[in-house]
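Annotated sample (chain length 99).
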Amino acid sequence: MLPSQPCGACQPASPPDYTRPAIDAITQAASTGHDLAGRPADVLASAAAQPGSSTALTARQPGSREPSLAGQLVTATVGYHDEHQPGYAGHSPSAQTTN
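Output written by the structure step:
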């Protein structure tokens, strides 16, 4: 049976300053019919291009489930060997196109 209240360990940590704008952006994209999975994938791919590899994006959090899933989303976007990553380097996600 699931508890009625989340456990203390399940509570997210205090959100960083950029969390609210990210939530607002995703909510706006979802409400306007934009590609809900494609936009975050493009954002993560663009962020991964800054340090130069998709693995660098999650390197400081090895073994964690959420970074692993984010890494899988980036890999699905830029390729297993970052072969599509050059298209994301130096570009804002809004400049990317999704299929």
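Annotation: The radius of gyration is 15 Å.
Annotation: Helices lie at 19-31, 38-49, 54-58, 65-78.
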